[in-house]
Amino acid sequence: MRCEDVSLLLSESAESDSSLPRSIARHTDHCLRCQAEQAQYRKIRRTMLSMRGSHVDPGVTMVGEVMMLVRDTDVVPVDQQSGDRRRVAYVAAAATAATAATAAGALVLAARVKRPAS
Question: Taking the model in full, what pTM does it have?
């Protein structure tokens, strides 16, 4: 079994809390590279779940600013027909991390903005 074959299933298993098929679990038990990747996916998921109950008031301009940043980001096209599943998993993880970072930044910014007393 190759790491490239396992990568996409590692990200999916972290997202759905489902168990891996036996052959992939055996590979992951012995492959440090795949163990590290699986730990990274779990960490991202835990971070996002911990932010689930957070409420951020983005204000009038923050939504527009975030949307401009998202639109200006260079997106690397992924050719899924080529069978490069590892790259697909990395792009998905990067998008998830970017979303988490944006939300965390919004939380920090919102906490620092002082609201006028009513």
Answer: 0.47
